[in-house]
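Section 3.1: Structural characterization of target chains.
Under the original work plan, the team committed to producing a structural model for every single-chain target entering the pipeline before any wet-lab resources were allocated. The record below documents one such target. The sequence was received from the expression subgroup and is listed exactly as submitted; it comprises 259 residues.
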Amino acid sequence: HLEQKSKFVVNYKNFPEWAKRDFQAAVDIWSANFASKAPITIDATWSRSSSSGILGSARPGNFYAGFDGAPDPSLWYPSALANALAGKDLDGDNPEMIITVNSLASWYRGGGSGPSKSEYDLQSVILHEMAHGLGFLSTDSYDDFFGYGSIDQPTAYDAYVQTGDGRRLSDLPSPSLELGEALTSKLVWSGALGIAANGGVKPLLYTPKVYEDGSSVSHLDEATFSSAGSDAVMSPNLDAGEVFHEPGPLLLAMMEDMR
């Protein structure tokens, strides 16, 4: 019975009842932690994934720039974050978030003391994926063949990503080899609240030498944060048996930086 700071409406497609229950638990947690006057609609689909390694995926319904209430008119804000900053729904016809869950994954379906070492916790996965949908997301891309990096529409998240020598990722030329090199080198978070929540140290982001589409940049570093308790929720890999039922102070601080 957490106090609601926002209202989420979920349109479920093909979800079994136990999965709806776990999904809704994650929604309730974000409802208590993400403030917005505009309701947030999620289109959620339960379906087979082409890759067994993918538990779920999320993307914003859209991105907006230059709206009333935008902290920086040059940046692109995902639907839910843009609506929260604008204080109204900028597009009433479309969902703010689209989430797909892999129905074939080895899910823990409840009824026990928690997931076994071979089962995945759906609530933990949805908590993580919703963070991406709410704005924990870079729009970078990488050309494996030429080594070029691109950020066509830098997000509020991109604006706080810094290279090891202190340059803003979103200020690098796009597309360019320079940006491509940055995407596969050390990157850190430069937001004041995120740094404070990380003990005064700029949080290290996940940037493996070989670029991983969908994982690189938009996560906290796996080696640094995988054992960091509740702050491990935004590392790229969820282990079987691992459980997160709160966003963790670092994620919440980074989300607040973006506002």
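The chain has eight helices and ten strands.
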